[in-house]
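Hi team,

As requested, here is the filled-out complex form for the 2-acetamido-2-deoxy-beta-D-glucopyranose run. I kept the field names the same as last time so the parser does not choke. Let me know if anything looks off before we queue the next batch.

— J.
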Amino acid sequence: MLKFKRYLITKLSAIYRCQPGRLWISFSLLVLLLVTLQVVEKLQPLGSCQCELERGLQQTTGHELSSALHSPHLLWEDDSPQGQRKIEPAPTSTEDVSRMHLWTEAFKIQEVTAGEAQQARGVTSQGKTCKPKTDIVFLKVHKSASSTVMNILFRFGEMHNLTFAFPQGGGFQLYYPHHFLAKFVQGFSPLSPRQFNILCHHMRFLQPEVQKVVPSSAVYFSILRNPVQLMESSFVYYKGASAFSRVRSLQEFLSQPWRYYDPASGDRHYARNLMTFDFGFNPDGDVSPERVQLMLKAIEASFDFLLISEYFDESMVLLKEMLCWDLDSVVSFPLNSRDSSTKSPLPDSIVEKLKAWNRLDWEIYTHFNRTFWERLDRLIGRERLRREVRALRQRRAELARACLQGTGSVGPKDIKDSSLRPLQHGGARILGYNLKQGLPRELERTCRRLVTPELQYSSLLYKKQFPPPPPRESPRPAASPAPPHRPEPTRN
Ligand SMILES: *[C@@H]1O[C@H](CO)[C@@H](O)[C@H](O)[C@H]1NC(C)=O
Ligand SMILES: *[C@@H]1O[C@H](CO)[C@@H](O)[C@H](O)[C@H]1NC(C)=O
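And here is what came back:
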């Protein structure tokens, strides 16, 4: 030991004599190392934390995510600003919560200033000088106009030859309601990850896995709906779910929800806090202010922006702005909507019960409704927003006149072209469209894209991305190359 010390001293003095600069560099590196260690230690969750929050989050996020949250190396894996912004919180104490808060605040500011800088340079989507975003993660929340958004993403992807992260075998859901795993994606390989442009099929969000299949620069967004209407819609559409199958009405369910709702049943999420569930959290988690804050911060840290389906047109203007797309890319006709025969206004007492029963969803919705409008005001302003919404509606009306027979959507029996007939599910009648006859070819294609239901569109794109192998030595050239995929319920 003494020998070593003497050796070190002579070595150091030698270094000092010859290259004093080097010593300083070593010294600075040592200090840096110590600081880093300190920081990493601070971030390390306490081993024996007994707080509710910790357990809640563990429950909430499933094993994979919680272990990911608890290994700090994951936090530092991607050191790009993008990657850092998407850090998942590792909450253990109120102190951590406030630190988490500071983090997300800091990252938000970074994001805002980037946007503002763009505006200052005049590179908004209006000026067409920004670069359209092509790497996208869309969390397709159930029953929230997400099929319409998916149509927009399908069209954009098709026109720009982008690749989609399809479920294995060309299914329609990424093993929902299981938490998302990268291996669910057709063609994913751990050896060459991050190769898909768009991830938009139904999934239960799990960020560390999602990050494996899309480039780190991907834009993350989703769309929310008022949980009162969402649950009413879910009740009609998933009437067969175990929580709903024994009741005649939503009222009956809400009068004694715990009699019908079993938190252990595999399809319970359709009956409570469906958005919370789709974002990856526990729909039966407690509603303490700390936990709610944490959940909101976690969503904010993962998603660049959230849209609101009650303000669909405003949402499309925001989408166009955030993705730097043009107007035609975000024009759409409502898809997968049901006819009004199964809709009726809800009495106030029911509304209050629905809010209370879906309290976590309510917290998510009201929070992001607020930030939605704040973002619109900050990035676009009410004046331009009004103009852009008007332009969007005009374009939609124009396309409807050019493409559609009659005045709009029709019931499933009245849709003549079966490839345009949407899947029917539950007690709802899902509407679709008839195209005008004899349209010019190019227009016909544009129109057809706008009204193709999601299952059919998904299958078409899947076949484009993974062409079936040509039949070897087929005696009859007309032999069909692959059996058509049997549509499974989208459970949208
Ligand atoms: C997409 O691919 C097709 C066929 O390979 C090609 O003709 C077309 O120009 C491509 N479009 C874009 C936007 O790259
Ligand atoms: C959503 O935000 C709008 C605009 O601020 C507001 O008028 C509306 O009441 C909000 N909705 C809910 C459910 O909070």
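Two things worth flagging: The first strand starts at residue 136 and ends at 139. Strands lie at 136-139, 198-199, 219-224, 305-308.

Thanks,
J.
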